[in-house]
Structure formats: structure tokens, C-alpha cells
Amino acid sequence: MSQDNMIKLECTVCKTTTHHSHKNKKTLKERLELSKYCNVCRKNTPHKENK
Length: 51
Hints:
Elements: E1 6-11, E2 17-22, E3 33-38, E4 43-50
Antiparallel strand pairs: 1-2, 1-4, 3-4
């Protein structure tokens, strides 16, 4: 995959960027929100797409 499809996922609780993912920007126009494990909070928290 190319680098322009790469996105950063930021924890909504502690505001740290802990995950990276790929996204098809042609089909998904809105920002992605996933539940992921945060190493800083040490629990599953919602992560939103960061710029």
C-alpha cells in the first residue's frame, strides 16, 4: 500500500498516537473511529483518525 493511504489513530482518552492503519479514502470520506488497545491507558479505548 502507498503512504498516502496511511492514517494515524489517536486515543480519545490520553491523546497519544499509538496505532497506524490504512484507509481507502475514495470510499470512506468521514474520519475513522475504532476501538483499540492503548498501551498508555492499558485498556481498550476509542481511537479516532488523526491528521
